[in-house]
Amino acid sequence: MKNALPIILCFVALLFSCGSKSDEEYRAKERKKMQDKIDSYTVDFYKALKITVRSLPFRNDFDSLNKDSIKPEDLVQQEELTSIQDFVLNLFHAAVGDEEAQSFSTLDYVNLAKGFSELRDNLKNKQEDDFPTLLEIMDGMTSVVNDHEPVAHQMGWSKDVEHMVLFALIDGSRSLPAGFGLYELSQIKEQDLPDNHIKVFARTLKAFAYLENGFPYLAEEIMTLNINELEAGRVDLSALSHSSILEAKISGPDAALKEWHGISAIIRAFSRYKMDREDKQELAIDDLELFLADAEEIGIDNELTWVTGTYLALHNEEAEEALKYLNKLEKSEHLGQDELEVVAKIKGYVEERDTEKAFIHTRDQLFTGKMVFKYLVKKADRVEWKKMWNESYPGKAMTKMVTYIDTEYAKVKSYIEAKAKFENLLGGDDS
Fold this sequence. Notes:
Strand content: under 5%
Number of domains: 3
Shape: elongated
Oligomer: single chain
Helix content: 55-70%
């Protein structure tokens, strides 16, 4: 029997190894779930709308844009064609025109859903990036009327940059389907992005989206790519050297590299926490230490470093170090009343030398992914280039366009969902 023991142990080990998944298997499962969200009826509606707009003829005259110039492919029913034409005209008036968009009736929304339902099949084999970008179309139609020079080419605009911008606007709406944003991200070809710093930013946006949609392994993978590229010195961040999201006191290309390395590390940390695996939890601690080291080296001293420092100090059972950060947090002007009460409770546990309870409260109530992401977004909103974008012609036009789609989609949503659930009502398949 002694000779059989090694064999039995090997067999047990084999059973356990067969039952555990590799990271790549988890990623493959997440990619499949993400593709299922993209391959949906509602996203097909959005794609059909975009192709309809992007396939419009170039013309330097907004007034000449009329129903005759909006001819999506092979729609049989005139009333459905009319609804799509009116919708696209309204979209342009909302984005770049001065006239108020006309209102739609219930029947108009039904015909709109039916019209895009027919378009869906006709446009399955078409790629929207075979056509000019939305900004180029708006440029061509408004440059004479609004007396501005076309800006798309001047500012290095590209289809991939537009997909990135549209994702950010859609994600900010919080009411449009998540599939719309995931579709935009899926269309970004990283190799075609104009600059390395834009690639770093695009990967960070993708990681946010992956975490929001429950894909931590994909988020970990793309943030690891960011970190590796930054550590290898393959990224020039000169363009970001004077625009610190986290308000670093030290500026310059090296400081920008440290900041984005730290941001990538803290996002990867939360990706790993979402995996609920002990090995990943320890790696997450390493990532948080990376973030804190980067942040403190370039003079970042704010709520994000304080809460990270508190978490790490309590994890290491360093009560005095935790109190140093907690004292700063309790004086914060940016934390809400509920968060300040949590800070006071944690500080009380630390002062009573109950670091275990303090750590649990920090982990579960204060140092959460939601809190960190909310803080990062709030800081990003204050960066100068974000303000410049919001005040620019393309920034205003793209924001107005997505706002219009958001508002109108809420009204047509029930008809689109009815088609998706009851394919016999409007015809076609439901995928």
